[in-house]
From TrEMBL:
The lineage of its organism: Bacteria, Bacillati, Actinomycetota, Actinomycetes, Kitasatosporales. This is NUDIX domain-containing protein. It comes from the Bacteria. It holds the Pfam family NUDIX. Residues 15-156 form the Nudix hydrolase domain. Belongs to the Nudix hydrolase family.
Length: 168
């Protein structure tokens, strides 16, 4: 279990943690990755991925992942949403995956700088897309996980408030 997550007899073991960006550009659009895998319907995910052993923490993983997947830098990073789901690791360990979602703004992006396993050895296609950060925009794509889709739909104004100048 990661050292920063308390353990008790009532908790399930955390076997994976991810850091994901609810990323808005300066035009107010949500940046997503359209995933297309052979034999599956397309789905849309927020940029991000697993916290690795050499990451200093979840926030460091977020910055590394958006750099890898988008060639991007983000700013105004604020914790927004946590999702916990049952998970079985590749070696069969049972527990939960905790996904940390951060609201943030795009500072810069150069897709030619993308790198990492998703780019170097892709399993299907990774297409960067922008959708309006509105209820209609969110409804226009199949965002996963479903809990995030519901959270976004219910909290557009709250997320914009997290990124507002008066949060301090």
């Amino acid at each position: 279990m990661p050292p920063d997550i308390p353990s008790s007899p009532a908790t399930r073991p955390v076997v994976k943690r991810t850091a994901r960006a609810i990323l808005l550009d300066d035009g107010g659009k949500l940046i997503l990755i359209k995933r297309t895998k052979p034999g599956l319907a397309p789905y849309w995910i927020t940029p991000g991925g697993g916290v690795e052993d050499d990451d200093a923490g979840v926030m460091a993983a977020l910055h590394r992942e958006v750099d890898e997947e988008l060639g991007a830098k983000v700013t105004d990073v604020v914790p927004a949403f946590v999702d916990t789901v049952e998970h079985i690791t590749g070696d069969g360990e049972h527990g939960v995956k905790v996904q940390y979602f951060f609201a943030c703004r795009l500072e810069s992006m150069d897709l030619s700088l993308r790198h990492g396993p998703e780019i170097d050895a892709p399993d299907g296609e990774y297409e960067v897309v922008r959708v309006p950060f509105s209820r209609m925009g969110i409804a226009s794509v199949d965002i996963v996980p479903l809990t995030l889709r519901h959270y976004l739909d219910a909290n557009i104004e709250g997320i914009l408030g997290l990124l507002g100048p008066d949060l301090d």
